[in-house]
Prior knowledge:
Elements: E1 7-10, E2 16-19, E3 25-27, H1 43-62, E4 74-84, E5 87-97, H2 103-116, H3 118-123, E6 129-133
Helix pairs in contact: 1-2
Amino acid sequence: MAYVTKATTSGGRNGRAVLDGGGLALAMALPKDLGGAGDGHNPEQLFALGWSSCFGQAILVLAKKHGLDGQAAKVTCEVTLNINDGAFSLAAELKVALPGADKAKLQALIEDAHTICPYSKATKGNVPVKLTAV
């Protein structure tokens, strides 16, 4: 085991989420798009933050292999919450911008990073993901 973290939430989407040790605590709120006040954070936002950061690290790890310098890469993770017949599901798009990079090389790097990123591996087969070189 390399690392473990723990968070506890009370009140669900309209509650409070706290990391073990109190290093981060967030007010949670149902988004306005779903009829909530939108005056806090939601799970989809937190998922997008985590995945974009994790994917960015995968880009850094593999960039040299693809002949690119990953230091200037910017990763955007767009998470969509879908509702179909009362059932909820997620979809995502990972967009990577790397100024001056050849698009074909960048796309190959993105696809490679998608194979090692823990978030990508955890969602494989469960969440449709679009990979885009910007």
